[in-house]
């Protein structure tokens, strides 16, 4: 009996070593990782230097490279580039980013899933697309990364964005703050206008600045610049929220609401009245942000908070002559509680068709990216935001950045050294956006509806269809999917 029991124990140990449970079912590679050792997950994530979980080497044995889709080029994403280097140093595993233009992101991720392509284990979605992939059960859930004690570390917006049907469907690459408006103080002064405190005031000020700029600088200088291609996320949502409105209610787009109509009309009129250039109708958010940085407009709307750093280091034309406004109310009489920005995110989805060891490695990389060490680079070096809200109150955060590494990465990317700051710039504005900013949670039909929005908005701006017809087309189109 003792001899038989010993044999049983030996077999049990062997099964554990090869990753097979007592019921005969082979474990997934990521289940070989003990995410709560060598210390509990909360401590691992909040340490000044990220602590790798126990068992990660066995789970990723034989894997020498992690490939993932990245939003845009790394030259505009220095924090991710730094974090790739840090992860490589910790694990000895090379990290390769496939850089995607914004209009390629949805197509590439969806096509990878549809083709059951195993080559890229870590895919990309924006915060508005997660519900679509969740509905189709496209990605591997990462519930084990978000036990209740870990969820408490992050803004409630994170769960609102990633948790559907009882599962966590991804984890963020980055947190992006939207809702600030950039402006040129010298232009406003010369045009004789006050700094606006509401969207209505901004449209009036932009019109006066356009008149001054045309007369003094030339016809190619405008009152306001905006990303028409990214209309829904960047400029529509914040202005609708500023009126107490919503874009989606009970799973249905609210294109017939008075709040939507006011915002849609106001932005169309900026083009029809020559306050903004026609080209803005097809600008993505980066070309729009860059146009402001090149001194082409009095106001830049729909630009992320990350440009709080870039405008000081990469755009000499406006250096020393730009400022940022906090999120605006819609009108002077609007309640202060409606003064809110929006939170966006590039989300990592684990490709369920990839080798399970590569899936485990993708999860490990996502685990690192949400840690204090990685988020420090997002917040301080690149001026992105963080769902880990308590970091904004850490007075030592900037001092713990490895600026030598940041400079060397910048040189490798061919961009200027980041500004070596001692504290978070515009901390109050940025923390407010993350703490109280809204997530634009949309139904699974969002990708199709977005294509229609990108059609009717420029058509209305160019006068090809009326504003009423544009809104009617949106309502009718959305009804087909609701």
Structural commentary:
This protein has 482 residues and is α+β, with helices and mostly antiparallel strands. It has helices spanning 2-17, 41-46, 56-59, 78-91, 102-114, 130-135, 148-151, 156-162, 185-191, 199-216, 231-241, 258-272, 285-293, 307-313, 356-369, 372-381, 403-413, 427-436, 446-461, 467-479; strands at residues 65-71, 94-100, 122-126, 163-164, 167-168, 171-178, 181-183, 222-225, 248-249, 252-253, 297-300, 323-325, 342-350. The chain has two domains: 28-175 and 345-435, D-Maltodextrin-Binding Protein, domain 2, CATH 3.40.190; 181-340 and 445-479, 3-Layer(aba) Sandwich (D-Maltodextrin-Binding Protein, domain 2), CATH 3.40.190. The strands form five sheets. It has a four-stranded mixed sheet. The chain has a three-stranded antiparallel sheet with strand order 3-13-6. Strands 1-2 form a two-stranded parallel ribbon. Residues 1-24 have low confidence and may be disordered.
> First CA to last CA: what distance?
66 Å
CATH class of the largest domain: Alpha Beta
Shape: globular
User: What is the mean pLDDT?
Assistant: 91
By secondary-structure content and strand pairing, the structural class works out as alpha+beta
The radius of gyration is 24 Å
* Total helical elements: 20
